[in-house]
Write the structure tokens for this entry.
Amino acid sequence: LNPCRSTMPRSLSACSAVRATVWERSGGMGLLAGVNVRSSIVEKVGLRLCRLLCSDGRVNKTDFGRRLRVWFRRHGRDLPWRQTRDPYAILVSEMMLQQTTVAAVVPYFERWMKRFPSVEKLAAAGESEVLTLWQGLGYYRRARNLHASAKKIDGDWSGKFPQDYEGLRALPGIGDYTAQAVRAFAYDQPVPVLDA
């Protein structure tokens, strides 16, 4: 069954490319938790990627992956959280980036990491200090969830950051996308990371 609702050839090609990429990144294991290829979001992401990468017609999944990597090397932004594999730093960036532009997040991220360079330092901080440093980003629930997650990691798991999907999802405020992003970017796990 084709998961695309549209009958346009471009849509079919894009959706097939996204499905193929998800299949490839999952190591041939199929779709992982949190990914619904029947969703309109996946179809829209596929269409956007296809317009960028497949303008000369259909491509196979290997060629699609290669083109995507080439595009990223040319156009990907140099951002501070891309310079690390530290799951804590990646979680901080992902939490800050929810509902906030990249340009706004960069200086906050740098200040945050200077003041709270580890999950242990954040866990030891008081809530008022955490909220003061977050001030200006809005959506303070993100800061509270990040603080609660640090306390859980530091206390319940002796400072060991979870690497599996279930462990990450057990942290306060961590949804499917954020759990998959930490797994992919910090641990180089072959998991799909889709955000609309």
Observations:
- The CA atoms of residues 56 and 158 lie 52 Å apart.
- Confidence is low (pLDDT under 50) at residues 1-17, 22-38.
